[in-house]
Amino acid sequence: MKVLVFRLYAPLASWGDVAVGEFRPSNGYPGRSAILGLIGAALGVARDDQVRHDQLDDALSIAVAVYSEGSLLRDYHTVQVPGSSDLKGRPHATRADELLVPRQQLKTILSSRDYRQDALCVAGAWLRSPSHGVELEAISEALRKPRFALYLGRKSCPPALPLLPQVVEAENFRAALSEAQFPELDGLDSITIPEQPQRVAWAEDIDVGWQQSFSVPRKDLPLSRQRWQFGDRIERVALIGAASALNEREDD
User: Fold this and answer.
1) Residue 16: how many CB atoms within 10 A of its CB?
2) Distant-in-sequence, close-in-space partners of 41: CB < 8 Å, separation ≥ 6
3) pTM (two decimals)
4) How far apart are CA 162 and CA 119, in angstroms?
5) Within 10 Å of residue 58's Cβ, how many Cβ atoms?
6) In a structure prediction context, what are the per-residue pLDDT tens digits for the chain, which is 252 residues long?
7) Cross-strand pairs, 119
8) Cα 10–15–19 angle (5° rounding)?
9) Is 28 helix (H, G, I), strand (E, B) or coil?
């Protein structure tokens, strides 16, 4: 089968987890919705184009090979916002709209936001069915020349290296990683690339080339991009190499 693979690296990335109150956590690697959103942005799919987002969701299987989750950076914020009563009955689609109130009506809230430093992964996508009008070659070209700016979770986190998307013929995701070439990584002192990923995560009961170690719930099934709503799904994870050995010691 054909598999599209592409690299994701930045000094800072933030892969949103469930956010409650003022705390904005980050997962250690991107989930299904993040990869689909990145592909949609490259193709120029508007956030409110629900039909096109649904086509991508229906057409693609997604897997992520995590070479490094990086280290945690927690950023402290103070944010000015108007009270809920001041916003009632007034459109506020943008941050600028939100702040169009007298200055004395603004309040200050505290928040913290998590980022992953020097995290590196390789994403894979392949077609479930050719009937959705989605082509891997077109996605690969769009990732090289994206219509919208790409970022890794937040707008402040643009990719720091070319994604180098490539479509390869392979039996599964593991074989596709072996076929893919990412030469720009050679000689970069700031990034240590292990010979194999620490873990691989995927969404469906499919053959990715590794045996599943465990499964976990993850709330990143895209329901509505326009309303920013996500549902629950089951994520399957394979621990590899040192991560697998550590897991076995913890189970003893």
Assistant:
1) 20
2) 146, 147, 148, 149, 150
3) 0.84
4) 15
5) 12
6) 999 999 999 999 999 877 776 788 899 999 999 999 999 999 999 988 889 988 999 999 999 999 999 999 999 888 888 877 777 777 766 777 778 888 888 888 888 899 999 999 999 999 987 666 889 999 999 999 999 999 999 999 999 989 999 999 999 999 999 999 887 555 455 565 677 899 999 988 889 999 999 999 988 877 776 677 778 889 999 999 755 544 554 555
7) 10
8) 145
9) coil
Amino acid 148 reads: F
What amino acid is encoded at 105 in this protein?
Q
Tokens of 98: 């939100």
H runs (alpha helix) in the chain: 32-43, 50-59, 84-87, 95-98, 136-144, 173-179, 242-251
